[in-house]
Amino acid sequence: MSPLEQNQVFQSLSSSPNARLEHCAELGDGLGAALWSNHHDARDYQGPAHHTLSCYLAGGTGTFRRERPDTKGAPDKLCVLPAGHESSWVINGEIRLAHLYFSAEHFAQAAITLLDREPRELQLRERTFLDDPQQAHNFRQLIGLDWDEPGERLLASSLAHEMIHHSLLTQAGLREGLRLKGGLAPALRKRLVEYIEHRVAEPISLGELSTFAALSEYHFARMFRESFGMPPHQYLLARRLARARKLLQDTALPLGEIAMACGFASASHFSNRFRAAMGGTPGAFRAAFR
């Protein structure tokens, strides 16, 4: 079963006799996008594991949440459906909409790098029928790309990352009444972020990071995961790939030099990791932006 097929929001719409999946794509690194049409339906979402961003493309003027029948959708209206939320929808008339799905790990990395916050401090605010012209424009750009063409799928993946960042910058807030236990001290977390950023090109071991933090490897790994929302090796790989994407877009450096600058053992190791995360090779990614 593909990651999209395991997504609860995707599953709910797929099981509807009235909803039609026009197109969908895995965009690499756990990202997914789908284009739907639906009519005269009722759908429930109950505690999905992934976050969903939704944009109404056409219709939707008869769509509402069951507990808010007086508030209805319209083209270019957006909904933010965080992981773990519950919602019940009634669709009167016809609607065409696009979804972007992303994981808790995407949220965690953006929380740390964009907002300098621990992911567990923050929550994505649930929003219904939001006006956000920039994000609506991003969605229309996203569906205008050919997700079946490798180069354009890579462009879609890059745009999806920008859309996630936009959502966190505009729709994330501190959790109410939160009392954090465990994890790394905020000052140490910030020093670790800087330490890793400055040494992305170097081989960094768990032992090196735990020594820097003055903790045993066992306690460091456990506390790192509490504060970063992912294990150290996953965060390090994500930062290496982010650096690689920027170098591929902004420079003409040979792929071998980019591999070394981002801490990969070889160009082939870099290519394999990049393809697994992004759904295409570094060369194809660079070509797509040119």
TrEMBL record:
<dbReference type="InterPro" id="IPR020449">
    <property type="entry name" value="Tscrpt_reg_AraC-type_HTH"/>
</dbReference>
<keyword id="KW-0805">Transcription regulation</keyword>
<dbReference type="InterPro" id="IPR050204">
    <property type="entry name" value="AraC_XylS_family_regulators"/>
</dbReference>
<protein>
    <submittedName>
        <fullName>Helix-turn-helix transcriptional regulator</fullName>
    </submittedName>
</protein>
<dbReference type="InterPro" id="IPR009057">
    <property type="entry name" value="Homeodomain-like_sf"/>
</dbReference>
<feature type="domain" description="HTH araC/xylS-type">
    <location>
        <begin position="190"/>
        <end position="288"/>
    </location>
</feature>
<keyword id="KW-0804">Transcription</keyword>
<dbReference type="InterPro" id="IPR018060">
    <property type="entry name" value="HTH_AraC"/>
</dbReference>
<dbReference type="InterPro" id="IPR018062">
    <property type="entry name" value="HTH_AraC-typ_CS"/>
</dbReference>
<comment type="function">
    <text>Regulatory protein of the TOL plasmid xyl operons. XylS activates the xylXYZLTEGFJQKIH operon required for the degradation of toluene, m-xylene and p-xylene.</text>
</comment>
<keyword id="KW-0238">DNA-binding</keyword>
<dbReference type="Pfam" id="PF12833">
    <property type="entry name" value="HTH_18"/>
</dbReference>
<keyword id="KW-0010">Activator</keyword>
